[in-house]
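Q: Okay, next protein. This is endopeptidase La from Psychrobacter fozii. I've checked the sequence twice, so it should be correct. Can you predict the 3D structure?
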Amino acid sequence: MTEQPHAPISTVSRDANKKDTNNMATPIAELTDTLTNDKKVKTPHPLFIEVKQRCLIGAEQLKRYSELSELPTDTRTAPDLDVGFGQERALKALHTALDIKASGYHVFAAGENGLGKRTVISRLLTRIAADAPTPDDWVYVHNFTDPRTPLALRLPAGQASLLQQQVNNLWQQAKKRLSQRFRSDQYQSKIEAIKNDTHQKESQAYEVLNAEGKQYDLALTFRSFDNKAMFVHPSKLPTENSDADVKHEKSSNNDKAPSKIEDHSTADTSSINTSIDNSNDDSTNEYGNSEYEAELNNFVQKNHMQKRLSQLTIALEQLEDEANDAIEALHRNIARRALQPLFTPVYEQFANHPLVVDYLRAIFTDMITHVERIVNGDDEEFVTAVLTTTPSRYAVNVIVSHTPDSGAPVIFEDLPTHLNLLGHVEQITQLGTVTTDVSMIRAGALHRANGGYLLLEASHLLEHPYAWQGLKRALQSRKIKLSSLEQMLTLTGSLSLAPAPIDLDIKVILLGEADLYYELLELEPEFDAVFKVRADFHDDVVRTSEHELALVAKMADIIDYANLYPFDRSAQATLLEHLSLQAEDQDRLSLHSDLLIKLLHESNRHARLSGKNIVNANHVTQAIEDMDERSGYLRDLYWDELKNGQQLIQTQGNAVGQVNALTVVSYADSEFGMPARLTAVIQPNIGTGEILDIERDVDLGGSLHAKGMLIMTSYLRALFSQHHALNFSASLAFEQSYAHIDGDSATVSEGCALLSALANVPIDQSFAITGSMNQLGEVQAVGGINSKIAGFFDACREQELTGQQGVVIPMANVKQLMLRDDIIAAVNADEFHIYGVHTLSEALTLMTGLPIDTMNKKSRYRKETLFGKVLSRLMLWDENQNSDDDIDDKKSKKKDKKQKKTKRQKKADKRKKEKRKENNSTIIIDSEADTHNEPSTQNSDA
């Protein structure tokens, strides 16, 4: 069910000019009645006329226009832009921080979003950085001693890429030259000589051992399946083999190549075991005994030779080791002679950088050590890495490189995550295995800005976990240390690199709003120690001719950058006037760059659509109207309700305890002014001056609104409590308001409504009023004054302008007036009026037409004044209360008297009744006595 709006409280009709005995309504102005031809002539009170004339604001005070003659013909002839225009305080703070090299002198640039802080700071830093020394380059390289901790090398600007190129060339040339050397005939002949010499020594050793075995009737042979040397009886050898064959086999096999001779060890062992068994069976046989002794003797000799063979095998293994060592020495010698000419010029090129030379020598040594793996090309560590031209082992990972004499870097990081700030180590998954190497180290914004300047949005920095902690740690230690964020977040122990830290020399500028700065100071104890300098950016600047020209230069700079049409004088003036409106001050200009850029682009669009090649005032006005229309959806809904009568706003007539208050509705990017009906209701003889703030009690009023109510309450108590007790209670409410209300700009309107209700004096509904008030009754400035005036003007125009309507505003707000041209035209035509007041008394005079606080000789408010009427009503309520009490006392006494009389009468009647009862009892007794006597008499007669 839709809630229907209630009728306004304590209102009177427009023709309510008759006095009623219970609710006396005083006219809008105190009228002086004079008799002329038996007719009354009504004239306003002289004080009302005086206040009205004194407070009236002329049309020339409603807006400040720019002098066209002082502006350039168009933006093409505008002066050059001063980068620091309007932000001298902030730039001075920046220079202070940049000049001090001590730790912690970083900057927090505080100011509203849209001021162009980043643009101003970037241009200033770019100018300073151009003359600053170019920082060094940094590279990460493989640590051949501890592969898990890559080395960080510093080189002069431009040398990092050169080192990377030189190492790549060294790898390509080294691989090519080594392949050529190891395929050469000379290399093959040397290898063959070493092998032949080794084989010859082996053959000689076998021949000597074989000759020794023959003394024991044993022959040296090799098993066919594993090429193992062993001694057997000559009878066990194949008949086709001879000693020459054995020698040939030994000489023709490399590293004991498998022999074609069959293994007879098993047969020999079985024959020995058989002979032993036979000897047991026939121990008495002499022939058997001699055979047994022969076999046993052969077995002992064979074991002896096998031991000699084992000793020979050890000697041959040492011989092979010597041969392998000789081959490795040959390889290294060849590699050294091949690589030395390649590395020598590179050593000389980086001779001034000992750490780089040490690294190059480490590469040289590593290549010599692993020359076989390099030449074979089948080892993963010596295969070209992904996305590189060299193996990761020899990769030079350029972390940051600068062009020589290019100045210091100025970096803005728009996504300041922990990884993007401090860098990270990438990983790659191959066949289910996660690997990483030095070539996968990635630089962060701190690496790129090292030696220069880094700009960050503070709100973006705080959005990402561990980003602030990482930045703070780096700035405090003055080192960039890469850490695995994955391990920090998941608490896992996965294998990763720990690159050596890099020295950090940087100035960081955080961009953010002032509220965020205060929150960081409160919540982060170390924030002030890291960001010691605060640079405040102003929202506006004083409006002078010089500053207007500077803003035109800023417009010209934006126009040139965006390639827009030039703007003529009229367009420049309209833009400057709109910037004063945004600053809400005739004498100030807004410095919000976002708004200016938006206006320039949309004005350029209207000029292009109209076929013009230069932008004029009409195009700028159309752009402003378009922007106002886009953000005016809620405002249009309100005006529709006003047209349909759903919103009750009265712009004519009089009403008691009812005021048109001026408010501003803010929602997202939409802001507009609108009048709101404020009503006050009085409850006589109840309470001691308490005022119920309905908005506050239902949690729709903010703390500032509550403060205004309390100030107004204190003011009223100070006014009347010394003259009479406040024997009433009151309530105030904004009618048809269902949203949160805050601010103290309704204090004056609340005071007017409450005093009107107390004095029973109507308020002219042709006026709307706004203003804050202190405890002395002085009216103070409020915000959104232009929107508030425009809101009531639109409401009056909707309900027809009568020429009597107007607004009452604080006089302190007059300098902030930048009203629309149609409002100024209505003021010039005397159809609408604007009044500025200094005190609540002046506002009440304009609203009621009465003198407010004029006193007589006895320091009492005169009866015809508003305050006098309030005191009269207070006393009247008190007298009425006393009269009612007297009447009640008389009635009570009369009732008591009557009750006492009735009680006495009842007592008298009771006594009379009792007396009569006694008399009746005596008569009855006497009768009874007579009756008894008669029979007795009769009896006695008988």
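A: Here is a summary of the prediction. DSSP finds 29 helices and 31 strands in the chain. The longest strand covers residues 670-684.
Q: Noted. On to the next one.
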